[in-house]
Specification:
1 helix; Lipocalin; 169 residues; 8-stranded antiparallel beta barrel; 11 strands; mainly beta; 3-stranded antiparallel β-sheet
Amino acid sequence: MKSLLYAVAALTLFSCGRRNDTKIEHNDNRPDVAYVSKYSVKDSMILDKNLGKVVERTYSGVIPAADGPGIRYDLTLWNQEKSGTGVYALSTTYLEADNGKDKTFDSTGKWYTLRGDATDKNATVFQLVPSNKNDDKMNFLVQGRDSLTMLNASLERANSKLNYTLTRR
């Protein structure tokens, strides 16, 4: 029964909305579940008291776009200090995409740590798995403490001199 409750909590899905203040919420009836609120969205993490407190990291940057000045990415990751998995919220803004006006899309879901990319078996990669099954997974190579570089589905970097890196704010 307990494992069923954990599975239900882990599969808690959410609806999209606009950006709100970020907060970590706990339910007194379920102290092992943390709800991360952002974009009027709730996602859950099963908490393990041995993995430390919930931490938040935010990265941003403008990635090249084929038919516009770029796509601004604002990515926030939440996880427990000693865990390589968590939840995320991603806002992608296509600059000047809609008759000269920006167009923003929000995505949320789970993220996981992978070991190895296409050229380095010891690389650390964060894989974003959206809750919306119609959205594609995204991969980011962890480069130091303060930057993530976008990778394709085969865990390869773009064959380009253009910037595909998000930096920590």
